[in-house]
Amino acid sequence: MLAMGVFFSVGIAQTNQGVPRATAKQENSEGRPPMKHKTPDEWVKDLDGVVALTADQKVKAKALAEETDVKMKALRAQAEADKEAMKQKRMTIRQEQKAGLDKILNEEQKAKLKAHREAERAKFGEPKKHRTADEQVNELDAIVTLTADQKVKVKALVEAKQTKMNTLKEEQQKTPDENIFKEKRQQIGKEYRAELDKVLTADQKAKLKAHRETMKQSKPAHKK
């Protein structure tokens, strides 16, 4: 799991100190495992395992981690200060570090990291964030590099899919038969992918297929 020393907000599951979840059996007051402290080197190694950093990116990411480590140590030294002020400072440091990481990673790496965040949220039972049509187009663009015309067409496809899904949710509230609606959801997804294939080039389809395979491998195995 992606992790770092004191505090790092790249979407990986964290405590109020920003350290990713440990595998220890003990749990905190929220029913979640306690966090394990990671050094900047360990954090860079884990990040590399998720997004495949270049040598130059590793150097920059480590410098970013060390800078944040210093900031967080200084912040903890002021623990007696007003808690709300501390919260605001933590948020600012998170934002600064996230912005710094965005400058280090390329668009494909950002897309991989975002997918990793969602997998982590799902793993620990946190709700998946609803994505707008524009957000989904941007994510696809980061993976396959869409043309302006393709962006318009893909957005229309996403909006059509969302409309169908919303209608299906309304129907499910009236007739809560999960098996029936599971098949309908799968059909809507299948139709969307078929239409998307008509929009993308062969090279883009190959990139998207490779990305999906990577995401499947990164998902945690289901417990029996």
Short structural description:
With 224 residues, the protein is mainly α.
Q: Which descriptors would you attach to this protein?
A:
single chain; 224 residues; mainly alpha; 2 domains; globular; disordered N terminus
If you had to describe this structure to a student in words, what would you say it looks like?
There is one protein chain. The protein folds into two domains: 1-128, no CATH class; 133-218, no CATH class. It contains eight helices and no strands. The protein has helices spanning 40-51, 55-76, 83-104, 107-123, 133-144, 148-174, 178-199, 202-218. Helix 1 (40-51) packs across helix 2 (55-76), helix 4 runs parallel beside helix 8 and helix 6 runs antiparallel to helix 7. The model is unreliable at 1-30 (pLDDT under 50).
Class computed from helices, strands and strand pairing = mainly alpha
Mean of the pLDDT scores?
A: 77
- Overall geometric form: globular
Estimated helix fraction: 55-70%
Uncertain residue segments: 1-30
Order of helices and strands: HHHHHHHH
Distance between the termini: 21 Å
The counted number of beta strands is: 0
Tally of contiguous helical segments:
8
Number of domains: 2
Radius of gyration: 20 Å
Strand fraction: under 5%
Largest sheet: none
